[in-house]
Amino acid sequence: MKITLVRGDITEQHADAIVNAANSSLLGGGGVDGAIHRKGGPDILAECRALRASSYGRGLPTGQAVATTAGRLNARWVIHTVGPVHSRDEDRSELLASCHREALRVADELGARTVAFPAISTGVYRWPVEDAARIAVETVRATKTSVEEVRFVLFDDPAYEAFAEHAR
User: Which residue in 15, 30, 62, 69 has its CB near the most CB atoms, within 10 A?
Assistant: First the structure.
C-alpha cells in the first residue's frame, strides 16, 4: 500500500472513500465533520439519520466506523469514524488506532482502493498532532488491507510536517 500526504482540504479530494472525523451523533458538527456534511449535501445526513434510526440509536461508538454515500463529494463513500478525546490521565491511543483500522476494514468491505484520511482527533478533541501522526501512520502500515493508497489530507503545515516525519 502506498501512503501519500496532501496539504489541503479533504472535501476537495478525489478518492473512492473519504474518512470523516465524525462526532458520535453522526448528524454533523464542526471541523472536518461539518465541512464534509456541508459540501457533500443532504444525502449524507439522510443516510446518517437512517443509521441512527436502525443500528446506531445511541450513536457511533468511539473507534468504530460506518459508511454512507458521499453525496456531492468527489468520492463514492464517506467512512465515518469517531476519534477519542485526548486525555492526559488515560491512554486512549488504542481507540485512535482503532479508528484507522476500522476505516480500512470498512473500505475493504466496500471495495475502495483509495482512501483519504484527515488527522483524526487533532482538532477540537485536542490530540497532539505529532502523536496522532505517529499512531495513524503506524496503524495504517500495520493493517492488512486491499486499499492501494492511503492519503492523509492535512489542513495546515504543522500537521503536514508531523505526518511527513512519520511517513518517511
Answer: 15
With beta carbons less than 8 A apart as the criterion, state whether 167 and 3 touch.
yes
Q: Kindly report, residue by residue over 112-157, the tens digit of the pLDDT.
A: 999 999 999 999 999 999 999 999 999 999 999 999 999 999 999 9
Beta strand 65-69 with 17-22 is unpaired
Pure H helices in 19-153: 31-40, 42-53, 93-110, 129-142
**Residue in this structure with the C-alpha cell 477540537, named with its chain if needed:** 124
Q: Which fold has domain 2-167?
A: Leucine Aminopeptidase, subunit E; domain 1 (3.40.220)
What's the DSSP call for residue 15?
-
pLDDT digits (tens, 9 = 90+) for 22-61: 999 999 989 999 999 999 999 999 999 999 999 999 999 9
156 is a catalytic site residue: no
> Domain-by-domain residue ranges, the chain?
2-167
* Model confidence, pTM: 0.97
Single out the catalytic residue among 9, 16, 33, 157.
33
